Amino acid sequence: MQKAIIVGATSGIGKSLALLLADNGYKVGIIGRRENLLAELHTEKPNTFYSLAFDVTANGLEENLQILTKQLDGLDLLIFSAGIGELNKDLNIDLELPTIDVNVKAFNKVVIWAFHYFEKQKTGQIAVISSIAGLRGGGIAPAYNASKAYQINYLEGLRQKVRKQKLAISITDARPGFVDTAMAKAEEKFWMATPEKAALQIFNAIKTKKNVIYITKRWRIIAWFLKLMPSYLYERI
After folding, report:
1. In CATH, 3-234 is 3.40.50.720
2. What count of Cα atoms within 13 Å lies in the side-chain half-sphere of residue 119?
3. Other C-beta atoms within 10 Å of 190: how many?
4. Cross-strand pairs, 51
5. What are the boundaries of each domain within the chain?
6. CB 18 within 8 A of CB 28
7. CA nearest to 199, candidates 172, 218, 185, 179
8. What is the tens place of the pLDDT at every residue in 170-188?
9. 218: which DSSP letter?
């Protein structure tokens, strides 16, 4: 039986992925801040879910990951689905710093812990829910876009490291556009996917060990335009 941990499993894509993995024979460790929501998820499949409530920005993150891994009796897949981001037109630093704490610092700690675990195990997979927002800067939410760019580049660096060291570790970067969750805060939204549809596409990407996937797939068109658009045009949008 495959074993997975999902960091950020209380709602949205993370919760949908937890249910999907459970339905496909995984033992799943679920992590989140809201203990009541983890408990609700646990009651749906009490013999499949192993829950641990804690804040990923608090001390003891790595120790808690180790505790949950022992409860699962091993680990094959780690999914980082935690993330925050606020619209911040006035550049309020109190909105920017929490985004960095979760999307950069906690992300870094979780991914490095998982990488070293799988390095010793000689096999494993890391999947991260980043965002298409990470392809360019964003004036309406600067820290969010920048934090997702950090994730995208960091994961690419890990793939390079894996290849050079000839390790059997897969690194999957899932980049959603708009998904119908609390994270979809833009004023204008289009091509909105349900969390269930997003989770299914991410699960399929994990199974096939894809490096990068856009959610939904047609967001590759937007990604292509974003990458090609000159800065002088993009800054006027």
Report:
1. yes
2. 12
3. 8
4. 30
5. 3-234
6. yes
7. 179
8. 999 999 988 886 655 555 5
9. T
Whole-model pTM above 0.90? Answer: yes
Mind giving me the DSSP string for 58-113?
A: STTHHHHHHHHHHHHTS-SEEEE--------TT--HHHHHHHHIIIIIIHHHHHHH
Grouping H, G, I as helix, E, B as strand and the rest as coil, residue 214 is: strand
Tokens 């610092």, residue?
A: 105
Angle at 83 between CA 99 and CA 40, to 5 degrees: 135
43-73: per-residue pLDDT in tens? 888 789 999 999 999 999 999 999 999 999 9
193 secondary structure, DSSP code: B
Strand order in the sheet with 3-7: 49-53, 27-32, 3-7, 77-80, 124-129, 169-176, 212-215
Residue (of 110, 146, 145) closest to 127 by Cα position: 110
Return the closest-CA partner of residue 135 out of 172, 173, 169, 100.
173
User: Residue 193: what are its φ and ψ, rounded to 5°?
Assistant: -100, 155
* Token reading at 235: 């800054």
Quick: pLDDT tens for 74-129: 999 999 999 998 889 899 999 999 999 999 999 999 999 999 999 999 999 999 99
Nearest 5°: CA angle at 116, between 173 and 78? Answer: 40
Three-state DSSP class for residue 217: coil
